[in-house]
């Protein structure tokens, strides 16, 4: 059989790009080679609709063990009773929870997309804003921190069925206890979407959402450093409060409603090869090496924030508790879009991002979001943040100077040579 050189040449080029550049996209990471190998395995051939021990296909004895290992490891990481590892992505995990909890037209309350929220938390262009009735809270203009008073007043006014906390571009920790109190006062369910900080929560470096939030979703590919995918978790299972019954007349548990919402609700056969990759990554998260990694993420992010502030960059909320910073570039007279385009020419990859109370559109934006999970996987430490900030700053000050950009690109490529990525791949 002829090798598909067109595709494998492109994969090789992408490996080169990942190796030579500074990867600062907050939602990206480099999963381990053994996780990649698990994904690129014969498990992709297997249909396994259903759950371990209860499948609609024959021949699932081995993939049952793979999926059960992923579930057991995930439960051990977060000290929880329930885990569904089948969602193909974070958006799928959130869609499954919505299908389990909500009826069309029900009200939801989430963080506004333009304040750092995610599309699946009620955006008008997403199923969550089309099928359900979305309402929003934001962050405080003066501090950049979540406005819990606004969350509370909105909850009282709207009486949502579900409150969603969690974000894509928010650098501070969450007060889950307070959110639960607000939810209880209006009889709402709380869903925490920890897609971004999950790896730090896994190592108790941030507040634990599980005691207060009924349902927790996450991606597996950001700080958790696994393959691209989603998960749904609960510390304690509970009977649904809406009186939904099974065919024997018993109240359904939330875990059964969530499992049914994932399959057959929104997905068909699970991606057992990806679930194997997740299991590998979860095993790594349980290791001491990963504890070191998570601690280093936080140290790097804090150092990065400090150095940026020293160069007069306006960081939303003034700093970070997690793995990212959101920078308002308005005092530097450059849009997020222009900054992103100039930076990528120097192989510094980060993304333009709206900042709270932005006066520019989502296509232009006033800010950029920078995260350190990927560079921390490469091995960069606090002392290396100075190189990142200096390189970033030179580009922001000279976005049209091709000589400056070429010089920085050379520096970046040379710098990253000291931090090998997938050396086994040659
Ligand atoms: C908070 C949050 N939730 C959900 C998602 C969706 O994840 P995915 O891209 O895997 O669907 C993201 C991705 O950026 C996210 O930041």
UniProtKB/TrEMBL annotation:
Subunit annotation: Homodimer.
Species annotation: Rhizosphaericola mali
Subcellular location, record wording: Cytoplasm
Gene: glyA
EC code(s) of this entry: 2.1.2.1
Function: Catalyzes the reversible interconversion of serine and glycine with tetrahydrofolate (THF) serving as the one-carbon carrier. This reaction serves as the major source of one-carbon groups required for the biosynthesis of purines, thymidylate, methionine, and other important biomolecules. Also exhibits THF-independent aldolase activity toward beta-hydroxyamino acids, producing glycine and aldehydes, via a retro-aldol mechanism.
PANTHER family reported for this sequence: SERINE HYDROXYMETHYLTRANSFERASE (PTHR11680), SERINE HYDROXYMETHYLTRANSFERASE 1 (PTHR11680:SF35)
Pathway(s) of this molecule: Amino-acid biosynthesis; glycine biosynthesis; glycine from L-serine: step 1/1; One-carbon metabolism; tetrahydrofolate interconversion
GO cellular component terms attached to this protein's record: cytosol
EC class of the enzyme, as a word: transferase
Cofactor section: pyridoxal 5'-phosphate
MF-aspect GO terms: glycine hydroxymethyltransferase activity; methyltransferase activity; pyridoxal phosphate binding
Domain Serine hydroxymethyltransferase-like: 2-389
Catalytic function, reaction form: (6R)-5,10-methylene-5,6,7,8-tetrahydrofolate + glycine + H2O = (6S)-5,6,7,8-tetrahydrofolate + L-serine
Record-listed (6S)-5,6,7,8-tetrahydrofolate binding positions: 113, 117-119, 361-363
Keywords: Amino-acid biosynthesis, Cytoplasm, Methyltransferase, One-carbon metabolism, Pyridoxal phosphate, Transferase
GO terms, biological process: glycine biosynthetic process from serine; methylation; tetrahydrofolate interconversion
Pfam families in the cross-refs: SHMT
Family: Belongs to the SHMT family.
Name of this chain's protein: Serine hydroxymethyltransferase
Primary localization: cytoplasm
Modified residues (N6-(pyridoxal phosphate)lysine): 222
NCBIfam families referenced in this protein's UniProt entry, alphabetically: PRK00011.1
Coiled-coil residue windows: none
Residues marked Plays an important role in substrate specificity (site): 221
């Amino acid at each position: 059989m002829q090798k598909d050189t067109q595709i494998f040449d492109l994969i090789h080029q992408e490996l080169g790009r990942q190796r030579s550049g500074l990867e600062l996209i907050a939602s990206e990471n480099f999963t381990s080679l053994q996780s990649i190998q698990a994904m690129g395995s014969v498990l992709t051939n297997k249909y396994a609709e259903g759950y371990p021990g209860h499948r609609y296909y024959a021949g699932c004895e081995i993939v049952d063990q793979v999926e059960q290992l992923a579930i057991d490891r995930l439960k051990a990481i977060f000290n929880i009773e329930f885990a569904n590892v089948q969602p193909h992505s974070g958006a799928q995990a959130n869609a499954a929870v919505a299908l389990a909890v909500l009826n069309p037209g029900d009200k939801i309350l989430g963080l506004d997309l333009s304040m750092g929220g995610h599309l699946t938390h009620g955006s008008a262009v997403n199923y969550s804003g089309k099928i359900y009735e979305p309402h929003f809270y934001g962050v405080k203009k003066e501090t950049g921190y979540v406005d819990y008073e606004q969350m509370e007043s909105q909850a009282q006014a709207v009486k949502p069925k579900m409150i969603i906390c969690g974000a894509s571009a928010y650098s501070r920790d969450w007060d889950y206890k307070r959110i639960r109190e607000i939810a209880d006062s209006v009889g709402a369910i709380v869903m925490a979407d920890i897609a971004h900080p999950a790896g730090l929560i896994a190592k108790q470096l941030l507040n634990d959402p599980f005691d207060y939030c009924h349902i927790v979703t996450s991606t597996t590919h950001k700080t958790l450093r696994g393959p691209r995918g989603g998960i749904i978790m609960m510390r304690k299972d509970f009977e649904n409060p809406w009186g939904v019954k099974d065919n024997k007349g018993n109240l359904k548990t939330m875990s059964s409603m969530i499992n049914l919402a994932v399959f057959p609700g929104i997905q068909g056969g699970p991606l057992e090869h990806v679930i194997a990759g997740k299991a590998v990554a979860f095993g790594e998260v349980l290791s001491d090496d990963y504890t070191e990694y998570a601690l280093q993420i936080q140290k790097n992010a804090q150092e990065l924030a400090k150095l940026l502030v020293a160069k007069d960059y306006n960081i939303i909320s003034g700093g970070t508790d997690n793995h990212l910073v959101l920078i308002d570039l308005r005092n530097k007279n450059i849009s997020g879009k222009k900054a992103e385009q100039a930076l990528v020419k120097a192989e510094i990859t980060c993304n333009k991002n709206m900042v709270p109370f932005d006066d520019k559109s989502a296509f232009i934006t006033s800010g950029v979001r920078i995260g350190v999970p990927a560079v921390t996987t490469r091995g960069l430490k606090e002392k290396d943040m100075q190189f990142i900030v200096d390189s970033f700053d030179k580009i922001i000050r000279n976005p049209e100077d091709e000589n400056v950009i070429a010089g920085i690109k050379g520096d970046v490529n040379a710098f990253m040579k000291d931090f090998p990525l997938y050396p086994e791949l040659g």
